[in-house]
Sequence to fold (468 residues):
Amino acid sequence: MTADFIDNGPSPHDLWQMDRDHTLHPWANFGPFEREGSLIMARGEGCYLWDAEGRRYFDAVGGMWCTNIGLGRAEIGQAMAEQAVQLGFANSFVDMANGPSAMLGAKLAELAPGDLNRVHFTTGGSTAIDTAYRMVHYYQTSMGRPDKTQVIARNFSYHGSTYISQSVGKRPGDRIAEFRYLESGIHHVSAPNFYRAPEGMDEAAFCDHLVAEFEAKIAEVGADKIGGFFAEPIQASGGVIVPPAAYLPRMAAVCRAHDILFIADEVVTAFGRTGHWFTSLDQFGVQPDMITCAKGLTSGYIPLGALIFSDRIWAAMAADGERWFTSGFTYSGHPVSCAVALKNIEIMEREDLLGNATRVGGYFEARMAEMKALPMVGDVRGSKLMVCVENVADKASRVLLPEELNVGKRISDAAEAMGLMVRPMGHLNVMSPPLTIAKAEVDFVAEVLEKSIRQVADELVRDGVRLA
Fold:
């Protein structure tokens, strides 16, 4: 039985064919796409998705780190419709504003840590990173330091897919030969992944090593040239890399000592993913100079991003009253998007979804940690409702399986056949379910994922692959 919305429209196969014939998907893999096409989704409710053929899946991916309040919320649809009828669009350039954007800016200033009381609205996370990169230049020049515009980020970071945001990020799979990236003025240091720390190095020594590397990079480039440091509190798409406890505070201290702006990329971690509105200060004790956010800001119902920055940065940029900030987007502060974000935050507060993320997230971490006993699983890491399972060929040496085996995709395919969606990323499987998830649903995820990993391990062994 097909989903309601297509009962009187194109058939599931027709939709599949239209998509295959005309759509270039983000991160399209041309060969498999042309052979197999896409899985067409038709409906969503809570933590569940239904495809066009009527099959139901538990979405442990959470859309793409974003369906925080769950799908199918009538309140969101009503807020969207009412705002679209009242004021469907108003530009926000120069001296124009609208009610929802004004109220959302005030709400974000209330929720954000410290003196982060200023907001620049964008279309999503990538454009928020672009704006942060430009604001580093603007602020440092305003402070009389026009050469202090280079930035440092980390390996295995993901900061977006626009030209600048992808250049700031550095996941190996994203750097392909057919595209070019900005190399000049963007530097990278090691990811704080303790699972991949040098042999024999404990966590404290690993943290010392990372901070020393950061200081050495600043000395190499010149502190008078480095204007900003981009850091996800937890490196999400790089493999849910949770840093050592002392790492971020120590990196922030180095930044302060050299007048380097600390930009926390919280596109994934903000709005409840780890049980906090924002993770930097509440979980890691770091007061950033800027925070980028998107995803959970609207729970994926409509595009919206924001750069939240300090009063100090505003004051420096505005010191000469004749300056212009020539950056922004047609849809910055879109009234419908901002109305949705306000309703989304209201639902989170009313239903204590941050509390649920903390309570059930702790249980989720514990159940996922059980996967460490399985064949192929080298590491399980994460925080509350973001977790990664890393698959390896040898647990002792941490050697990876050959890339061509596509082990993460094999596991996700096996799980999908049993009604569970987990995200494959090379040798990793990543989960970030809605904040509404219940313990019984966590049990379902754990049970199906375990079966899937065992099934794939057995298949590989039968095919002659050695697992240790």
DSSP finds 15 helices and 15 strands in the chain. The chain has a mean pLDDT of 97.
